[in-house]
Amino acid sequence: MPTILQPDALSYKNAVFDFAFHPTEDIIATGVKYVPGAENNESLWNVRPSKKSCRGLAFSHDGAGLFTVSKDGAIGALDVNTGNVLIKKPDAHDHPINSVKLLTENILATGDDGGVIKLWDVRTGSETMEYTEHDDFISDFDFDASSKTLVASSGQGTISIYDIRKSKMVAMSANQDDELLSICIVKDRRKVVVGSQEGVLNIYSWGDWGDCTDRFIGHPNSIDTICKIDEDTVATGSSDGIIRVIEILPNKFQGIVGEHEDFPIEVIRLSHDKTYLASCSHDDTVRFWDVRYMTSEREEDDDDSDEAKDTSGDKSDDDSDNDGPSGGMDIDSDDSDAPKKKDNRRPKKQAPAASNPGFFDDL
Questions:
Q1: Adjacent-strand bridge partners of 153
Q2: Pair 112, 153: CB distance under 8 Å
Q3: Residues 6+ apart with CB under 8 A from 194
């Protein structure tokens, strides 16, 4: 594999709560074009869409627009080429907005600190759905396009499931007595992985939402963010500042991508070309990690893996859920009744990227 230099870290004067990769170009919000090598990054623009902290960013599917959500409950839309604020919708939520994700080309999801989830039609700026089942902050979203299913994690210790075409919640899990901070759909929509305050990855089987079917132990601190590398592998960002790679079912610790010393990691995301994993932390930086050694090898092995699956019979994933310790981490499934230690830290968690310059055109 040819050598490629990682882009320089991006440093800021204030904490970075979220960032977003452009869907097709080497651009990362806050308006920076990242280039391999030292001192090559190029600032495209700088704008302050709200007087309160910006808590989440999301590019539109075509990359022409950028959504922002903020502590004052406002949603905005920016022109990616100029940084101009096209529209700001104040008081979109009664509480600070903590999570945002573009679900389809036209539907945006937002979740706030009061546990309210709203869906928005980006063509008109109108609210299409409101879900109020949670009583604590919405920490993260993921979405399955084929079934139009939104999954959300929350600070009250539950995950919730919604068919975005319907006004009522589909299901809510049992309470884990632990803040659930991050969520990711894997295994071709057969499993959902959820990171917790206590450092446990809770694994749910799709459609069986009552309780998790497996648990991965090994993170010494909270799992504040999860990024899918492929259907079998995720990267986790923890409050101990370390980015780990975890294989899901069989559960195995695969290694460490990088770290922000002892500073908690807020968000990790994979670039559009799967060359870089980027992370932001309480050290006020966004750092880039070259992960082609993971993504290219996995893509080359896809055909072999598909053939193996075709000939492996109908053995359930759950038969191999627990693979024992690996990589120096205690990763046995957790059936322990040992008491949990909570520090009640409220994560400054943000959400994925999406946007559209035509947002709220009719307002």
A1: 140, 159
A2: no
A3: 153, 159, 180, 182, 183, 184, 201, 202, 203, 204, 212
302-310 vs 292-300: helix axis angle to the nearest 10? Answer: 50
CB 137 within 8 A of CB 129: no
List pLDDT tens digits, range 60-118. 999 999 999 999 999 999 999 888 888 889 999 999 999 999 999 999 999 999 999 99
Do the beta carbons of residue 172 and residue 136 sit within 8 Å? no
Q: Which secondary-structure segment (H or E) carries 205? A: strand 200-205
CA distance 291 to 296: 9
Owner of token pair 């922002």: 68
Q: Which of 87, 142, 91 is nearest to 355 (CA)?
A: 87
0.90 surpassed by pTM = no
> What's the pLDDT band for 330 if we cut at 50, 70, 90?
very low
Instruction: Scan for tokens 């986790």, then name that residue.
Output: 236
What residues contact 299, with CB distance under 8 A and at least 6 apart?
none
The mean per-residue pLDDT over the stretch 36-65 comes to: 84
Buried/exposed 38-66: b ≥16 CB within 10 Å, e otherwise: eeebeeeeebebbeeebbbbbbbeebbbb
Mean pLDDT for the stretch of residues 327-356 = 39
Q: What SS3 class is residue 320?
A: helix
Which fold is adopted by the domain 173-345?
A: Methylamine Dehydrogenase; Chain H (2.130.10)
C-alpha–C-alpha distance, residues 191 and 256, integer Å: 23
- Beta bridge partners, 166, equal none
Give dist(CA 253, CA 238) in Å, integer.
Answer: 14
Query: What is the distance between the alpha carbons of residues 209 and 34, in angstroms, rounded to a whole number?
Result: 40
Domains 10-128+349-363 and 173-345 share a fold: yes
**4: confidence class by pLDDT, cuts 50, 70, 90:** low
Hey, which CATH number is domain 10-128+349-363, 2.130.10.10, 1.10.760.10, 3.30.2010.10, 1.20.1050.10?
A: 2.130.10.10
Report domain extents, the chain: 10-128+349-363, 173-345
The tens digit of pLDDT for each residue in 14-29 reads 777 788 889 888 888 8
